[in-house]
Amino acid sequence: MAFSAMNKSSRQISAPTRKAEVRAFSRRSRGAVKVSATASSQEKHLGFETMRDGIKVAAEESVLSPRFYTTDFDEMERMFSLDINPNLNLAELEAMLAEFKLDYNQKHFVRNETFKDAAEKIQGDARKIFIEFLERSCTAEFSGFLLYKELGRRLKTTSPVVADIFTLMSRDEARHAGFLNKAMSDFNLALDLGFLTKNRKYTFFKPKFIIYATYLSEKIGYWRYISIYRHLQRNPDNQLYPLFEYFENWCQDENRHGDFFAAVLKARPELVNDWEAKLWSRFFCLSVYITMYLNDHQRTAFYESIGLKTTEFNQHVIIETNKSTARIFPEVPDVENPAFFKQLDKMVVYNSKILEIGAMDLPAPLKTLMQLPYIERMIAGVFQCFIASPLEAGSVDIAPTQGELVY
Ligand SMILES: [Fe+2]
Ligand SMILES: [Fe+2]
């Protein structure tokens, strides 16, 4: 899971459920992260706040930061009920469940002794941007864990096969989040994920939006991990930290998760087959692509530290994700039209102006006033991307008379 969204309404999930999830997480990720008793003063110099020794205060949420999600679980139950939705291909879902049960990565996430030393060698600005990268990635993975775990729990009675798939996907995300949090502890700053579970806001998305958004976030996650992995295989001198060596198998988890959501979309023709579905497809693609582009360009230093060119890397990931998405979404943005990335590059400039003004030592109302023209241009930019001619896509059509799926 690696997406952020524009919808800001939120609601909390009940505390007992969340407690159970955190316990399950601890079991899956083999216990809580152990952090050295005294946080080194170095981290304080880097400007990070700690809530106690070695435990970092989570970064403040913003429009672009990873979020936790919740949904209408009753509607999800109806969505996966075979009685209501006979299009659900149970044989396909059972085959997917069997594959998840094989647990290809059961023995993959085992750390070695090189982690701690490699972290010690990363100093100065690079250290700070590494910690930020690990925190964002950990939060995004943990967000997936919470959502899938809850879905696994809630769908148990109506759709046991789907429930088991969600539970096994939450197993994968728990491993990913745990591995990243352990990596943060190499830098003497881990996250208290239990605290975060109880205290972070949950953004509410209707089930169909959860399906679009999670599909995209899994696929973009796959392309991000595999692209970083392949780049570092070609340029081993930039392999500053052993975490990236795990990305090849790791990204296959994300790919499998994405394929599951593709199967769900195929089973619900109304999610991929009318004008409304086309608009939402385009909207979610653009939200995910633009958010990543702006986020990563805000953190160019990180990508450069491992020898990647931020713009090239982002454009490659977006183009590839869009190709995967075009196989299932009915419409996708035309990202290979040169105007698209030109527009995104302009938005990067406006975004950096907004951040620059935000960091000035001036009264807040004055800063807002100064930011307004750039905010307006950002909104206009998003709108331009939205109204640009999209690409017709998708692999599923409904035969108009029978209402059956035709591939
Ligand atoms: Fe993951
Ligand atoms: Fe995933």
TrEMBL record:
<keyword id="KW-0408">Iron</keyword>
<feature type="compositionally biased region" description="Polar residues">
    <location>
        <begin position="1"/>
        <end position="15"/>
    </location>
</feature>
<dbReference type="InterPro" id="IPR003251">
    <property type="entry name" value="Rr_diiron-bd_dom"/>
</dbReference>
<dbReference type="GO" id="GO:0046872">
    <property type="term" value="F:metal ion binding"/>
</dbReference>
<dbReference type="InterPro" id="IPR008434">
    <property type="entry name" value="AcsF"/>
</dbReference>
<protein>
    <recommendedName>
        <fullName>magnesium-protoporphyrin IX monomethyl ester (oxidative) cyclase</fullName>
        <ecNumber>1.14.13.81</ecNumber>
    </recommendedName>
</protein>
<comment type="similarity">
    <text>Belongs to the AcsF family.</text>
</comment>
<dbReference type="GO" id="GO:0009535">
    <property type="term" value="C:chloroplast thylakoid membrane"/>
</dbReference>
<keyword id="KW-0149">Chlorophyll biosynthesis</keyword>
<dbReference type="GO" id="GO:0015979">
    <property type="term" value="P:photosynthesis"/>
</dbReference>
<dbReference type="GO" id="GO:0015995">
    <property type="term" value="P:chlorophyll biosynthetic process"/>
</dbReference>
<feature type="region of interest" description="Disordered">
    <location>
        <begin position="1"/>
        <end position="21"/>
    </location>
</feature>
<dbReference type="InterPro" id="IPR009078">
    <property type="entry name" value="Ferritin-like_SF"/>
</dbReference>
<dbReference type="GO" id="GO:0048529">
    <property type="term" value="F:magnesium-protoporphyrin IX monomethyl ester (oxidative) cyclase activity"/>
</dbReference>
<keyword id="KW-0560">Oxidoreductase</keyword>
<keyword id="KW-0479">Metal-binding</keyword>
<keyword id="KW-0521">NADP</keyword>
<feature type="domain" description="Rubrerythrin diiron-binding">
    <location>
        <begin position="132"/>
        <end position="264"/>
    </location>
</feature>
<keyword id="KW-0602">Photosynthesis</keyword>
<dbReference type="Pfam" id="PF02915">
    <property type="entry name" value="Rubrerythrin"/>
</dbReference>
<comment type="pathway">
    <text>Porphyrin-containing compound metabolism; chlorophyll biosynthesis.</text>
</comment>
